[in-house]
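Here is one chain, start to finish.
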Amino acid sequence: MRALVTGSSGHLGEALVRTLADDGHEVVGLDNRAGRFTTCLGSITSSSVVSCCMAGVQAVFHAATLHRPHVDTHSRQAFVETNIGGTLNLLEAAAAAGVASFVFTSTTSVFGDALVPPEGAPAAWITEEVSPIPKNIYGVTKAAAEDLCQLFHRNQALPCVVLRTSRFFPEEDLDRGVREAYADDNIKVTEYLYRRVDLEDAVTAHLLAAEQAPAIGFRRYIISATTPFSPSDLWELRRDARRAVRRLVPEYEAQYARRGWTMVPSVDRVYVNERARNELGWRPRYDFRGLIDRLRAGEDVRSPLARMVGSKSYF
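Its structure:
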């Protein structure tokens, strides 16, 4: 198979190129920033560049984007041109080339204000049925790009699967308060309870989506680590997350205490990956319970692929 990976110099893009190449596929890596796994240096905002890269391609993995951190450094127009205009260029070229599957990397950030319930309410149980309420230009443009994928499936019969991925980046949290309150490894491991996914698991979801896109047609999926929580835990999570985690994963306390870590006092949302597990057959390997086992064994909580890709700057 010949595959096009956009954003090939980024976290997910590099991980996809590495995995596809290791599996024996021919990969075109497109990015506007040079990198070891980028074979075509150019922007998705250029229709001529995109058309050139699309030749002979059977599957597109569209991971290139302006991210949430770019909200502070780029104009809203730049977000529109890259996240919407660039996606449109790729969809046009993919439809014209008869591509068999188009996988769009979206984000749980599209849910926006739907992620934060009002004071006194339980934590939000976030499935694909929750209506997005984007709260910044990043969320708006990713939601619009999702709708473009749906449009091209409906009108051009292009098989498109949208993956709303939760956090997988290794950089420090953007929130200064979070950085000051928790060690970086502490908060990242904790987030596997409700809002994080390992890079290797994210890649596996993308590969399954590409494989099954022709049969699926169009569908949105949340890609996040499997949570130990259920809807019956939502009130307790919002009021006393420590108690909820202690009840379900009691072995966490010893490992956190050994490292001087603390559990977050409250959780406001839980991402649910049930649709992806049921329909794609996705089996994420990295979840909170598994990470606690790794900590107990003195192992690195990151997958080998995540360690290999390492940290990158968004800028």
